[in-house]
Recover the amino acids of this structure.
């Protein structure tokens, strides 16, 4: 039998290294793409926001309509993230730790918002809670308002964001297995004790990662919220909706001022995501999210 000697480090490097010209072209294309589609739009947003000075910028942000949009956005994000945190952890725990009928269907349903347009998901809530919807007449009779109010906006936002926490945790919990939980139970721990003392500490970075992505999407959601909000000024306009309204009314400084807050949220999310991903090497967060 012929002995095959392992490649030296330099030989392995040569097999993975492209010619200088190809490397340069690939890097140039990447940098150009990021510059055109990421860096320049951010620069334009902040330049337009401060085009008339810092005073006009802060005046736009402290306008009552803007403050109402900011409060509503934060409220809806808090509601949707809280609900998705409970759902995501529970769903991931059930999927990775137990076997039950319909498990594959549940996994598929978790991915549903990724394949359905947000506008369609908003329309579904209109068909359910609208005046001519399935529950509309009953809710009108009992003076319960979902559409064109905070509950409808929160429901629509929760729907489009609910995969993020679950999808951050399922691969992680699959990789960790059930050995530690089985050991804890064999030592007399209850199910809840096992979860809070064994499972939750092992997935804390995955939970934070999922919450981060869920919050970013919740604050920036436009399509589903646009359908169910009714665009009532000062009441049901979130920050993305207000940006569109102000821009269409040629209030460019105000529109870009609100947009700059969303851009800063994106930058903060990017920094936080990078920090959390440092724990990837420790196996705390699944790669690819």
């Amino acid at each position: 039998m012929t002995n095959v000697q392992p490649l030296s480090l330099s030989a392995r490097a040569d097999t993975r290294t492209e010619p200088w010209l190809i490397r340069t072209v690939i890097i140039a294309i990447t940098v150009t793409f990021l510059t055109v589609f990421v860096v320049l739009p951010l620069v334009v947003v902040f330049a337009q926001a401060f085009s008339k000075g810092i005073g006009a910028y802060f005046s736009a942000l402290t306008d009552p309509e803007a403050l109402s949009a900011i409060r509503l956005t934060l409220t809806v994000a808090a509601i949707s993230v809280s609900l998705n945190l409970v759902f995501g952890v529970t769903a991931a725990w059930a999927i990775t730790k137990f076997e039950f009928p319909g498990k594959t269907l549940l996994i598929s349903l978790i991915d549903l918002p990724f394949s359905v347009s947000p506008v369609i998901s908003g329309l579904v809530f209109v068909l359910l809670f609208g005046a001519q919807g399935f529950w509309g007449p009953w809710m009108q009779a009992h003076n319960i308002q979902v559409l064109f109010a905070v509950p409808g906006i929160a429901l629509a936002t929760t729907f489009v964001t609910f995969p993020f926490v679950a999808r951050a945790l399922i691969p992680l919990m699959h990789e960790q297995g059930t050995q530690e939980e089985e050991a804890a139970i064999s030592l007399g721990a209850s199910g809840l004790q096992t979860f809070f003392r064994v499972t939750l500490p092992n997935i804390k970075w995955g939970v934070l990662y999922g919450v981060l992505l869920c919050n970013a999407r919740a604050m920036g959601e436009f399509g589903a919220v646009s359908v169910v909000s009714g665009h009532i000024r000062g009441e049901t306009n979130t920050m993305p909706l207000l940006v569109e309204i102000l821009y269409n009314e040629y209030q460019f400084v105000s529109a870009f001022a609100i947009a700059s807050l969303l851009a800063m949220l994106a930058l903060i999310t990017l920094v936080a995501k990078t920090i959390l991903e440092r724990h990837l090497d420790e196996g705390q967060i699944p790669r690819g999210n």
Observations:
- The chain has 16 helices and no strands.
- Residues 1-5, 7-12, 284-289 have pLDDT under 50 and may be disordered.
- The two ends are 45 Å apart (CA to CA).
